[in-house]
Write a structure and sequence with these properties.
By secondary structure, this protein is of the alpha+beta class. The chain contains 7 helices and 15 strands. Strands 7, 8, 9, 10, 11, 12, 13, 14 and 15 form a 9-stranded mixed sheet that branches. The N and C termini lie far apart (44 Å). The mean pLDDT is 95.
Length: 297
């Protein structure tokens, strides 16, 4: 399979308030964000010319920056408008959108109060995160080697670049072993999330999902909870010990990239995508494309 590098593409990228040719959107090797992971980002999807939950993603970008102790030098309205304009200028109406903010080059060291904050918005074609046919059958997960950090030891409620280091390591290891993704536990061996998606587990018609205390309360997660409740399903947010995993009949994960994806296997445990997983997968796909009324309650 031929891979097109992300630095060698046609199009434009919004960088610090203006659009620049894609290949010219560069940063210096001594950028603080590269050396110290002082960056935050958002992953979003545009469907039919509309970015799903765009304002909510912008709000989270700003909140993440605040947690990381810097301020984004643009208004929320400017960022939200720039995302739409970036898609328009690149001729895209179904695509992935990445907004990212990071500390610049003025200081290299742990202390970096005087660095300039940069912001970029990029968008590109990106079909389903997992093979569409595989999604219906359910993807296979293994266990991640690492744990999601204790909230007392890392800014777990920021969508911060540094928190994804263990995600890349874990997904690579999973794929080498023939799995699609990996399941993270928290520091107490409770079920947490996948490498880039939240998780839901079903038992006796009730949907259970871990309390987001050591990981992001995903925007797709929140949407699916509302959607499930609107369909009459009971949703319980709680601590879920790993020892309960064998008691569930269905599992699915959610995220802007993953959307709603059923799971057929986690390690030694097997699950069968059923009515709840598949109906929510279909309903979410219709909702984001505005074929169903968005759930706001």
């Amino acid at each position: 399979m031929s891979i097109i590098p992300f630095d060698d593409r046609d199009g434009v990228i919004w960088l610090d308030g203006q659009f620049v040719p894609w290949r010219e959107a560069k940063v210096h090797v001594l950028t603080h964000g590269l050396h110290y992971a002082s960056g935050v980002f958002e992953g979003e999807r545009m469907y039919g010319g509309v970015i799903y939950a765009s304002e909510a993603h912008t709000d989270r970008l700003f909140n993440s920056a605040q947690i990381m102790d810097f301020q984004i030098p643009f208004s929320k309205e400017e960022i939200t408008a720039a995302k739409d304009e970036a898609c328009k200028r690149n001729g895209l109406d179904d695509c992935y959108v990445r907004a990212i903010a990071w500390r610049g080059t003025e200081m290299i060291g742990v202390s970096a109060q005087n660095t300039k904050i940069h912001v970029a918005i990029c968008c590109w074609d990106w079909p389903s995160y997992f093979d569409p046919e595989l999604k219906k059958k359910g993807i296979r997960l293994t266990y991640a080697k690492y744990r999601r950090p204790d909230p007392r030891s890392a800014p777990v409620h920021a969508k911060a670049t540094g928190l994804y280091m263990i995600c890349t390591i874990s997904k690579h290891a999973a794929e080498r072993d023939g799995y699609a993704d990996a399941l993270f536990l928290d520091v107490n061996d409770n079920i947490a999330e996948a490498t880039g998606a939240n998780i839901f587990l079903i038992r006796d018609g009730v949907i259970h999902t871990p309390t987001p205390d050591s990981f992001l309360n995903g925007i797709t997660r929140q949407s699916v909870i509302k959607l499930a409740k609107s369909r009459g399903f009971e949703v319980v947010e709680r601590t879920i010990p790993l020892t309960e995993l064998s008691s569930f009949s269905e599992v699915f994960i959610t995220g802007s990239a993953a959307e709603v994806t059923p799971v057929s296997e986690i390690g030694e445990h097997r699950f069968t995508p059923g009515n709840i997983s598949l109906s929510l997968m279909d309903d979410y796909a219709k909702m984001v494309r505005r074929q169903l009324q968005p759930i706001t309650a």
